Amino acid sequence: MLKIRYKEVLYGGVVMKHKWLEWAQKIQALSQAGIAFSKDAYDIERFEELRKISVEIMAEYTNMSTEKITNLFANETGYQTPKVDIRGVVFQENQILLVKEKHDGLWSLPGGFCDIGLSPSENIVKEIQEESGFNVTTTKLLAVLDTHKHDHPPQSSHYYKLFIQCEISGGRAISGLETADVAFFAKDQLPPLSRKRNTETQMHMLFDFLKDPNKETVFD
Fold first, then answer.
1. Using an 8 Å Cβ cutoff, are 166 and 139 in contact?
2. What is the spatial distance between Cα 53 and Cα 8, in angstroms, rounded to a whole number?
3. Selection from 165, 133, 160, 125 nearest residue 146 by Cα
4. pTM of the entire structure?
5. Cα separation, 119 vs 110, whole angstroms
6. Partners of 111 in the beta sheet?
7. What pLDDT digit, counting tens, does each position of 206-215 carry?
8. Cα(11)–Cα(6) distance, rounded to whole angstroms?
9. 159-171 and 83-92 beta bridge pairing
10. pLDDT digits (tens, 9 = 90+) for 72-97
């Protein structure tokens, strides 16, 4: 995983946080599409050079070598699109289900990247069972959010996050391979959150659905 150092950039007379990361991501996406669809050998060469520049930008602001960044950040082919991260929202007695991540020791909604071959519902049912021990059924898509528009820390990729409400149908609280603990928390007693996975603002938004089950799906 890339560990990204926070830095503010002066742009157009205004201080903008992490603008370098946005530039690197856009250059990488454009170069990847150019390599995939260009027919002219000279254009492909130029796009490959742009991809190298995006890697150099990432290397300048992270703790990793250009080789590792290339493998993680610039090794895909075809037209680049945002990655999909799916999170399960399970309420019980006015509390929300969270799992403690072994990776950073912080708490998040159960979930993760969508797997090829599984639908969003199938993905989140699997993730919740593996990370928390509970069997669930899906009931409603609550939100589809763009991480660039929310207060997540900067990350090397662009993500869309799907929040799907589920109901427990069986099982019991058991931590999994990637989780160290499983618990339910009230809105005003949330533990330290893994902000790259979910933010406090998003948690409060999700509790709005508990208060108003007819609330419309939130997007962007």
1. yes
2. 20
3. 160
4. 0.71
5. 16
6. 87
7. 999 999 999 9
8. 16
9. parallel
10. 666 666 677 888 999 999 999 999 99
